[in-house]
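Field reference: sequence -> structure
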Amino acid sequence: MKPDTETPFDGLVYRLVVAVDVEGYSKLDALDQSLAQSRLGEVLDVAARNAGLDRARWYRQLRGDGELAVLPPDVDTASVIAHFTEEVGRALREQRRNGTPLRIRLAMHCGTLTTGRFGLVGDAPIVTCRLLDSRVVRKELAHGDGDLVLVISRRLFDDVVRTRFHELDPSRFRAARFSAKGASYAGYLCAGAPRAELVET
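Structure field:
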């Protein structure tokens, strides 16, 4: 699958990786899949813009029902977890008010990666995708009331969320462990707002 951005990384880099996936995408017919992709693109573009992020600087690898993105090295990781997630949730609520609901899973992890012939390779994209596709995260979204579930790696929780920068509230995250393809992973789920001061509307 060809990435949107053609410029590869210069060797091994350490970056924040963000992945997103639409719930129930494979059950849709071709027309509704196309519409879901369009709505997801709008949600991500609006959320990034409102959070002060430039999506044109993201290295993006499309996944059909979502995308895997590597953010620039100068990004404020705490701000992304706090404000980008908040804006994604707000954009999804707007979609629902417009009668075009979309439910998504959002995963984040920091780690090493580079680009290979067929896209991203390395620890960071693998862990991010394992978090995104885990059964516990799918179940959390399927049985929850909201349109968004955020899952982050234990590393991000320990290194970033616990700092409480950008009003991040560790108590809003729930620890979870799961296995995938013979490996064990630890993450933290947040089914609501990751910031203490946010009042959802």
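Note: The mean pLDDT is 91.
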